[in-house]
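Final report, Chapter 2: Outcomes

The project's central promise was a pipeline that accepts a single protein chain and returns its three-dimensional structure in a standardized token representation, suitable for archiving and comparison. That pipeline is now operational. To close this chapter, we reproduce one record exactly as it appears in the project archive, with the input sequence first and the structure output second.
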Amino acid sequence: MARDNGYLPIVIEDATGCDKPEQEAAAMERINNIFAPGISSDDFVEYLEQRI
């Protein structure tokens, strides 16, 4: 819904996981390709600390 309304949702990759760790890479690839870009928690903190 956010993307449909002009927002860019993000997923913090190192704060997510799958029930089966071997499926995590494929799940993140699908999320990146379809839903939202994935970033690290360190990158997210850097973005929050930037002044606009």
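Archive annotation: The helical segments are 24-35, 41-49.
This record, like all others produced under the grant, will remain available to the consortium after the project formally closes.
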